[in-house]
Sequence to fold (263 residues):
Amino acid sequence: MDEQKNQQIAQQVERWDVFARLMPTVFLVITTILIVFGLIDFETAFYVGLLGFAITAVVWWWWAIFTIKYLVITLNRASKNLGEVNREVKIVITELEALKNES
Amino acid sequence: MNLKQYTILKAATNVISGFSMVTLICLGVAYLSFKNAFVFQDIKIEITNNPITQEKDIEFAMIGSKKFECNSTEVYGVAYAEDGSHSHMLDAFTKQYIRNTRPGEEVPNSWSMEVPADIRHGGRYRVSMTGEFICNYLIFTQHKSQTFDNILLIVEPRNK
Fold:
């Protein structure tokens, strides 16, 4: 389950990366063509860009919050498990030392 | 595609994306600044021949500076009686104004307008002059409107 979720997050990060690299250029080229051919004016392009920027910011913000929450939970669980392993190793060492002393 | 090509492609798209973003932000900020700017700054309009005597026209003088290239498409005034009872449209020019003054420096402008025929009894008025403009800045074109209020107009009673 964790492995699947981790893979999902890695894929989402990759998608955000591609989106961030392509979207500004794609938007700039498309709006320039539309403005040059007189299909839209600069004001329309400006408000569409502003809307796209706002939607991206909100979606990214919530995605980041949920992803960070998931990472913190995973980190806590890993830390807790490591603590348990540490405790068990200490018990084993104590028992081994006891056995050694007996012999 | 091998790893080296992939790395180069990724770096190139990062750079192009960065430049695109900077271009979009600069254009957006320039557009907002242009859209919200007034046509005239440090503007002053007054009537220079108060009170308006018989057969005289209303002479306006204006001084102000423009930040952008703006061409006026329509200019008109409304004279409001000081007691608020009535108003008159001023739209008949007897002497034209300069349509496209230079941007960036204070250029004096003047024009004359006919006293409306229905101001027979004369009186004190407050004039609002409104200008409609088409302004250009970089790649932007914008319709703008600016009004200058509260210009004192005193008209003496007319004979006809």
Notes: Chain A has a mean pLDDT of 91. Residues 65 and 71 of chain A are 10 Å apart (CA to CA). The interface with chain B takes residues 20-25, 27-28, 42-43, 46, 49-50 of chain A (CB under 8 Å).
